[in-house]
Amino acid sequence: MIPARASEAERMVRRGVDRFRRPPGPGWMLETAIRWLCFGAAAASILTTVGIVFVLVKEAFLFFRQVSPVEFFTGTRWAPLFQPRSFGVIPLIVGTLMITVGAGLIAIPLGTLVGLYLSEYASLRVRAVVKPALEILAGIPTVVYGYFGVFIVTPLLRVFFPQVEVFNAASGAIVVGIMILPLVSSLCEDALTAVPRSLREGAYALGATKFEVSWRTVFPAALSGIMASFVLALSRAIGETMAVTLAAGMSPKLTFNPAESIQTMTAYIVQISRGDTPAGTVEYQTIFAVGITLFAFTMVMNILAIRLVKRFRQVYS
Question: Considering only CA atoms, which of 182, 180, 139, 151 is closest in space to residue 246?
């Protein structure tokens, strides 16, 4: 019996070897084409990123050959288009952070509560209505949010605070917070829904209430995804352009008063990119210096998101 089994095994091995020795058929060629197509898509995204970084670094290097990096990163006056010229980017950074922090104070608490409600409390009928409505809110063009801030939000603010300027940081922060609210709520809802049902049933078996299950069991278990949604939304707020340009204004002054007009880094890039500044001049190259600064901000935010996800996923895995 043993030699027969051995010979049978040898025949099976030979049959498998012969199969691999056969010339490849149409299926193998299709798999190879699909593999190279996927590789090309991945390589295109990488090459695009490398090209963007190369352009930013090249033009920013030409700018910093004429302007001191110390003056650029420590100066408190931004006036590259007027005499006497000044290239201190601090007012633009402060304006960007005011919009980002203000939008986060609005979107993060509300988005978390909406996501928790949709995941743990809402019925299927309510969820079928609320979630598509949030997705529609996310699809509204940003320029519409800007006009909403100018014609709706600012007049309401001036009813309660008459000293608010027509273009102000508070209006910009509010419209950006509304704009990133669907992003926070949707990602939070997805992270909370992905928590295994066994965790909920175990908490209920121990006598926990609905509130305790939601906040002490489900929320900590989904914390990695929730934190990632926060950082992703804040990264979106940092890079927002048209809504901030229309609602917050284009006054690059160093102020911490949300009732005054400010200018963000993206708004300045829009101002210079309209074509009024000759290409190749130091004024034109400022958009690349500001752009690489903005790129560094978003990259730090993404790295922070990755580290937070890894940290909390290790704890609650």
Answer: 151
Query: What confidence tens digit (pLDDT) does each residue in 102-157 have?
Result: 999 999 999 999 999 988 888 888 888 888 888 888 888 888 999 999 999 999 99
Domain-embedded: residue 7:
no
Indicate whether 4 belongs to any domain: no
- Minimum mean pLDDT range among 33-47, 117-131, 244-258, 276-290: 276-290
| Whole-Å CA distances, 280 to 59, 67, 84, 134, 311 | 9, 14, 20, 44, 45
Task: Tell me which H or E stretch contains 87.
Answer: strand 86-87
Nearest CA-CA partner of 193 in 218, 212, 213: 218
Q: What domain range is 239 assigned to?
A: 78-316
CA-to-CA distance for 127 and 116, rounded, in angstroms? 11
Kindly state the tokens that stand for 260: 């005054």
Is pTM beyond 0.70 here?
yes
Distance, in Å, from the CA atom of 154 to the CA atom of 14, rounded to the nearest integer, reads 80
Maximum Cα–Cα distance across the chain: 99
Please indicate, yes or no, whether residues 83 and 196 belong to a single structural domain of this protein.
yes
Q: Whole-angstrom Cα distance, residue 160 to residue 152?
A: 13
Rg of the chain in Å (alpha carbons): 27
Query: How many angstroms from the chain centroid is the CA of residue 280?
Result: 31
197 Cβ contact partners less than 8 Å away, ≥ 6 residues apart: none
